[in-house]
Batch of 3 targets.
Target 1
Amino acid sequence: MKANNQSEKEYKKIDWMITLLPLGIIVALCVLFFCMPEQSNAVLSQIRFVLGDTFGTYYLIIGLGVFLISFYVAGSKYGNIVLGGQDEKPKFSFFAWGSMMFTAGLAADILFYSFSEWILYATDPHIAELGSIQDWASVYPIFHWSLIPWGFYLVLAVAFGFMLHVRKRERQKYSEACRPILGKHTDGWGGRIIDLLAVFALIAGTATTFSLATPLMASVINELFHVELSRTAVTIVILIVTCIIYTYSLLHGFKGISFLAKSCIYLFFGLLAFVLLFGGEARYIVETGFSALGRMVQNFFELATFTDPERTTSFPQNWTIFYWAYWMVWCVAAPFFIGSISRGRTVRQTIVGGYVFGVGSTIISFIILGNYSLGAQVMGKADFLAIYEKSGDLYEVIISIIRTLPCAPLVLVLLLLTMIAFYATSFDSIALIASCYSYHRLKEDETPHKVVELMWCVLLILLPIALVFSDSSMSNLQSVSIIAAFPVGAVIVLIVASFLKDAKKYMEEIKK
């Protein structure tokens, strides 16, 4: 009888609309992608064109604006606010905190893009407009993955951390962060719509990430074992195995997530160190990376506001706008998780520490892995651009790059393990936040029921599998993020404005 009462009590705590409606729509989308892949991709492309091309400046304004606000918040009086009690100490060490933050914010796609992104830009006519491949192909990767993306994460992380640890709010949802401006409408349809948009964006972001990088893991397995298995079949097996790992980790709570995150960081930096020290291109990697970093900083505002109004190359529409949209949809889960693990840190420590650990690690990855192959290309040691032009397959190009490294099989194993660890760590944090969304109210010291966590672990894997089956191109995967990010961008602005209003009120309260 007691067990039945407990189950009934848990049942009533679940927000079934936020849980079941997205589930139904995701299942419907999966069926469409399975049954009508070409028609589905055509519709996606058309919607993406309207939002990304016609309204592209919208994404650029939000990206630059949030980045500038992050510096204002960190440097202002709000930077002194402790995310928790005024004398509270950080819950996690800087390394554990930074590891969880970095791996929650970036999945295994950082490795996919670190190896190959310069190739995508080197073949773009916009690079020829700017100058040489040597000067510019390594600039855009660190621009698209550093300051503005982490600006999104960190401003929202302190907003959510303030909501959870200072205001002690029990509704761990996107809409709750808007309460200082929305007021009573937070509990009405306005709040419900915001939360549904957030869940859809969350699923879109995970689908895009999983679908982009997991085929590389399939290619690695084929290369290691010298087999020619179907990439689609191997990718789906990898998705299922990764789902099992992150589900196991999540069911062990923050202890499991922290262990997996630290393991991932050791593997990640081990891979970077091997390529830098034993790849034979250390001098070129460091010097080109240093130059690229300087050129990015020098031209930052020009890169951030370039719209190509004449559409001579449509470079910002194809890349910069996609990336800002990509980060916006990831902003549903990653900042919530960063905010939850930042208890005891000040707003300033969270933002500055996030930029140091998050941006620093990201830039190092692109400088080392990207410039290794760029160096081989510009110095005539290999022709990766020719391989890409011939096959159009970035996964094959990355395998070709790794073959040029000493102990290539060892590097392949290390890459595979690191990608699995990245995915598992990213998605157990996402599944945890999604599980919190399924509750009407959840106190700070409460955790979601294991069944709810398990359901989200499975749900997050369905759409990526459908996208892999539909053989979606990179353009179509980009479309998923651009479409989902359009309404979420407005919500992000609302959350930032709400935080500034509430933080101002809090500062006045503690002065009394």
Target 2
Amino acid sequence: MPNVSVERIEKDLLALSRFGFNEQDRGVYRQGFSDADMEARRWLMETFTSMDMKTHMDGAGNVFGRMGPDNKPCVMIGSHLDSVPAGGIFDGALGVVAGLECIRTIRENDIHLDYPIEIVATSEEEGRFGGMLGAQAISGKVTLDWLERAQDSSGELLKDAMARHGFDYHEVMHARRSPDELRAFLELHVEQGPVLESKRTSIGIVEGISGVFKWMVRLIGKADHAGTAPMDMRSDAFLGLADFTHEIQRIIDEEGTEKSRITIGFVELKPGFPHTVPGEVDFTIVGRDLDPGVMKALAQACRRVLSSIARKHGLMFEYEQMSWLEPSYCNSKVVDIIKQRAEGRGYSHMLMPSGAGHDAQFLAEITDTGMIFVPSVNGVSHAPDEWTHWDDVERGANLLLDSIVVLATD
């Protein structure tokens, strides 16, 4: 098989990075349905047109470029174009521009395909408005009620942000693609974690994407004067949280696996004054695993432990489940194809889960799906210093190319 041109991938990635680039912190600010996001989408459509590909943008803001006939199911490849605030240049964008390079390489080498290839740049994957709008729309996993209520952290409604760019949010409901239109979906992405680099492995072949549950937890005690309330007579809400954090590793050891994660990412003490014993603490618990049964066991263990700790410290314990997303599994045949192609190239590789969410988890509901990871330097992502070495980019794109050819050929 021929090799891609990593120089062209680099050129495209740097061109895309201009949209939303901030000179001060060197980060990319290309949040979903921002001006920079829409400029990047127009650039991509112009690029598709210059490559004689058929292109369009659907009602959810997804951009498509197609090579091949319309009357056959396609092998879809791609990722997202939006970024988090102060993001890096690789997250999402790599999967899109690698797709462009695969098309160029296929054409230059007159590689015969029996099925069309369609590149997708999904919209609003980073969750500015609380979901993965583009992929959810393609897979039919979005509701009109959610579209009308969704808002970002500043309170701006999704439907208003869309309207500023000429979108009618009702059209999102027409973005669904039938499973009959798709033969497979492949996504190339940076790992966004330290595993591949630490193991000196070039390629991660994703088995599946971890399920996620998110709780908002409240422990309620009694606010007291920090100087006059004796230590043994307090109902200190913070001590309840502190005790729980020490139990997290035990919960994973007893109920979880090496793929389990439990994270407390947000904490708010009330009243939040240095000379007052905290009478209330609100915090989040986010749990992840690739096995739905393990997820449930982790959640039940968290509830038991919190109830016990609340009794110990004389606290009330309340929680609300904000979301529960089941694990999503990659197709075993597609995984085998990627593995065989990696072996054929002599690339070191390993099977691994994805702890982060990706477009692939929704596409997996309507078509055979696979995902390829390449290493992230120091495991950094969602930050200006996100980086993946160009030789790793080249290996990932070559493997994407090889896998496309197999999947698009009878």
Target 3
Amino acid sequence: MTRSAADRLAALTARGAHAACGVIHLIDGRNLRLVGGHHLPSGFEAMQQVPVTATVAGVILRTGFPVVISDVDRDDRVPPDAPVRAVGLRCFAGYPVRDPNGAITGTCSVMDYQPRQWTPDELTALDDGAQACTAFVAELRAHETEYRQRMFRDTLLESLDTGVAACDADGRLVLVNRSLRERFGTEQVQGTVEQWARGLPLTTPEGAPIDVTRLPLLLALGGADARGAEYVLHRPDGTRRRLIVNGHPITSGRGRSLGAVAVVHDVTEARRAEQLQRELARSKDEYLNLVGHELRTPVTIIGSYLELLGESDPESPATELLPMIAAARRGSERLRRLVEALLDLSAFDAGRNPLQVTEIDLAGLVASAVGDTASRAVVKNLAVHRSGPDRLPLRGDPRRLTQLVTAVLDNAITYTPGGGTITVTVAASATTACLDVVDTGLGIPEHERPHVFDRFFRGAVTTELAIAGAGLGLSIAKLIVERHQGVITVTPNEQRQGTRVHIELPRWPS
């Protein structure tokens, strides 16, 4: 019931009862809510937020019967603090207002400024007014229920992280919820679906412009149930999001089209998870193939030479057996290194290998590692040059840093042909220690450089030349550097063919 309609009904009731004032109240929790009035005294409306028990209308609600008062000042039923007393009203007559089920929902009252006796015709007019209020109350309740439902629906849709858009039967947008507005960056949404969609930064997954007429919302408006359409949203910050859109028709009970609704799901993370799952499966297969191959070779060597030893003449001199024992020992050592690398990597991943940080001399550590690998360099006729300060103190894990330097040197020796050169340079600032290992080796193709730190990665040259290894050395080296809060990079040798490995470590990590 609108306020103007209630005011007119209050006026008609007051005229029928020949009263100065008319008022219609509805129950609102523990209070009465003024919904209509005619010639109300000054200040009367401001006094409506009072408990029902402090009003004359409360007597009607408590008893369920009409209340007729000829003189307010002489009637004990009028509460001392009732609003009618405060505004100078002297007589009162009120009837209960009921809903269609007979429950009392409010009161319809008339009042005057002088004591008087209410005539039967006047009370009949008041009763008629109260009866007429029933239809208005039913309409008001229906509007309030609809309003609450609409507010609930709108709040629910606005709070969803899933995007929702809806249009009417003519294709005009009637709803685009908060999630979708924020995702598309369109606060003002108006016009038709086609007009709105033409300005959206959407493409197909292949990057082609979208066909606006084939949008799921428009297909659903035509009666189709459109599911699974996939788009790419290009955001202003340069990022992209994958969206799945489903469209559903909205029809009446008789099948008449009322419009359509589209639900937009952001599946970016799900797609990434699927991609990671595929990469994981591929990496697992590569890992099994690689490790299987790398394990098979030393196991085969060991098995073959043990078999030869077993078949040899017991009377054979030891000098004939020693080469086979040495070959089996080399296979065993290769197998041990592979297993240790795998266990080391697993321990890093699981966090079972915390650093044992102490103050160390990086220059001395590098010199010692160069000395330990010197024999391999000599065998390949490689020249190894080392330069830097005699001492370079920093805080780090000596065992892990030795492992790091050794891994980088081993790579340089392995991939540098005979007669080449390896240059090891140590330098420092007040806060940073730097290590450069530059070789004149085979080099790394540009397209392979982003993958050199990937686990089990082995380049094309490695495979072609059948160079032994599991592709774990640089992966573990990077983990060690990162645990020390440092950075490791691999770039081409700037002087000639080859590779430069550059490592920076904070001298006093936080």
